[in-house]
Amino acid sequence: MIEKSRSLSVDCIAYDLEDSVSIGKKTEARTLIRRLLDQPRAKSIKEYAVRINSVDSGFALNDLTAVLQAPSLDTIVIPKVNSASDIHFVADVIRHTLSTGSRIESSEGADFRPLHLLALIESAKALSDLPAICKASPYMSGLIFGGEDFALDLSLTRTPAMAEMAYARSAITTACRAYGLPSAIDLVCTSYQGDEGQQKLKEECLGGKGFGFNGKQCIHPSQVEMAQKFFAPSEKEMDWAARIVVAADKAERQGRGAWTLDGQMIDKPVMGKARSIVSKAQACEMDISTSLEKWKDQEPE
C-alpha cells in the first residue's frame, strides 16, 4: 500500500504515524516511512508530508528523529495542536536536528527544500489560540481543520449541512489570511463510496471553497480527482477572471481606477480577486492562456 502511493498524482501526500498506527506498530511505521522518503521523489507528487503523533503523546520526538533528515520530506503535519507551545516544540527539534546534521540530498542533486509545518486545529482551545499558533514559527505554512475531533471536543451534533462547523471553518481561513499562511485545508469527507459519497464530497468541496479553504484532506484515492476539480478555478471562473484582467490592464493605461463590466462596478478588490484566480489557474497548470486569448478584445465599460 505505501509503495503504491508513489503512483498517485496529488498536490500533497501525507503518511500517517498517528491515529492509523497502533502503539505497537509505531517503530515499524517510522522505518517504512523513512525508507520511502529516502527514495527519489515521484514526479507526480508535489509535496511529501508526515503526520507525526501529537506533542503530548510522548511519541512525537521519536517520529521527528526518524524522518527529519529524509531527503524527500517537505512538511510535518502536527495533530491536536492546542497552543503555540506545540509548534515551538516541533520547531525546536527541527532546528536542533538540522544544526547537528544536514539532510541527505537526493541522488539527483536537488536543491535543499525547506521544511514546512501544518497545524491540525481540532479543539476549542486551539480555535481560541489561533493568532499565537499562526505566529509560532517561521516554519508555519498553514492550518488544517480536524472536523471529527473538533466535533468530539465540543460534543457537536453533526448535520448534513455542517452549520455547526461554520464558525470554526471561518475562523481558520480568516486566521490563515490574516497571518499570511498559504495553506487552509478543510476537513475530511468520510463518505467516498458510490454516488451518494461522491455527491457529499462535491458539496463539501464547494462549501469549503466558499469558506475560503484552498484544499481538502482526502482519505481515499477516489476522492482526489473531485477535490482537485472543485478547488481549482472552473472554466466559468477563468473566463470571468480573464475578462477582468484584460480590461483592467486597458483601464490602467487609460488612468481609470474603477469601471464597469456587464453593468457591475469593477474596482481594486474585484481586480485583485480576478488576478488571484489567474494565478491559481497557473499554479494548477490549467490553460488560462486560452481564456486570456479568448477575451483579448475585452474593453472596460
Number of helices: 12
Report the mean per-residue pLDDT as an integer: 93
Oligomer: single chain
Q: Order the strands across the largest sheet as they lie in space.
A: 1-2-3-4-5-6-7
Fraction of residues in helix: 40-55%
Helix-strand pattern? EHEHEHEHHEHHEHEHHEEHH
> What is Rg?
21 Å
Shape: globular
Structural class designation = alpha/beta
Can you walk through the features of this model?
It is a single chain. With 301 residues, the protein is α/β, with parallel strands linked by helices. The chain has helices at residues 26-37, 60-67, 84-100, 124-128, 130-134, 147-154, 166-178, 194-211, 224-231, 235-253, 268-283, 288-294; strands at residues 10-16, 45-51, 75-78, 116-121, 140-145, 183-186, 215-216, 259-261, 264-266. The strands form two sheets. A seven-stranded parallel sheet has the order 1-2-3-4-5-6-7. Strands 8-9 form a two-stranded antiparallel sheet. The longest helix is centred in the C-terminal third of the chain and has 19 residues, at 235-253. The radius of gyration is 21 Å and the shape is globular. It starts with 9 loop residues before the first strand and ends in a 7-residue tail after the last helix.
Q: What are the SSEs and their pairings?
A:
Elements: E1 10-16, H1 26-37, E2 45-51, H2 60-67, E3 75-78, H3 84-100, E4 116-121, H4 124-128, H5 130-134, E5 140-145, H6 147-154, H7 166-178, E6 183-186, H8 194-211, E7 215-216, H9 224-231, H10 235-253, E8 259-261, E9 264-266, H11 268-283, H12 288-294
Parallel strand pairs: 1-2, 2-3, 3-4, 4-5, 5-6, 6-7
Antiparallel strand pairs: 8-9
Helix pairs in contact: 2-3, 8-9, 10-11, 10-12
